[in-house]
Amino acid sequence: MSTIAERWREVRARVDAACRAAGRAASDVTIIAVSKTHPASAVREAAAAGATDFGENYAQELAAKRGECGDVRWHYIGRLQRNKAKLVAGQVALVHAVDSQELAADLGKRAAGVQPVLIAVNVAGEASKGGVAEADAPALARAVAGTANVRLDGLMTMPPPDVDPRRYFDALRALRDRLAGEVGPLPVLSMGMSGDFEAAIACGATHVRIGTAIFGERPRVE
Ligand SMILES: *Cc1c(COP(=O)(O)O)cnc(C)c1O
After folding, report:
1. d(CA 57, CA 54)
2. What is the pLDDT of residue 221?
3. Architecture of domain 4-215
4. How far is ligand 1, taken at its centre, from the CA of residue 183, in Å?
5. Please, is 71 exposed, middle or buried when counting C-beta atoms within 10 Å of its C-beta (0-12, 13-18, 19+)?
6. Where are the domains of the chain?
7. With 80 as the cut, is the pLDDT of residue 165 above it?
């Protein structure tokens, strides 16, 4: 049984090695420790070991944990219902999974300043998953980029499990490159999880979202 601190150091070393292998600086890639379903004590343990950025999927859980974890940066990485936008806006460094202009507008209205966001793209076209279809991403990107008090920073995706994810990571990066010509710089590519973050870094990820490899298995509640 390894501790959270040990697993964090191992993930940090693997991310650094993947960056070196890709000819990228380790500072290019932000590790988001995905703490959903784990207690605040686990967040504090990872933070003490060096983790700076944490990801949550459930608005209420995030709101409850925020006060108990000290000075860390939060990311909202899950699907967000519009009626929960007020719990998240202005409280997180980045909202990763915006999938409608209406949600972006709600976040902008509720943020005290400017809320940075990503658009979630369903690159594999899976019916069970959120995110916008690749074909609809350009129109949504233009709309979100034009939304008051919201800054569009890039794209995120979550490929299907049990397939080689690289074609989906490459597709997201190519889409980002195309859209950046239209809506301005989109520096962030949020892709890669415990099972595939090295491939994602090779394909250009700037933010990897890693839960299980740092915190261990989650109770199955999803
Ligand atoms: C839970 C979750 C992760 C982390 O997954 P692991 O396989 O545990 O690393 C990453 N991204 C999203 C959107 C998630 O919901």
Report:
1. 10
2. 56
3. Alpha-Beta Barrel (3.20)
4. 28
5. exposed
6. 4-215
7. yes
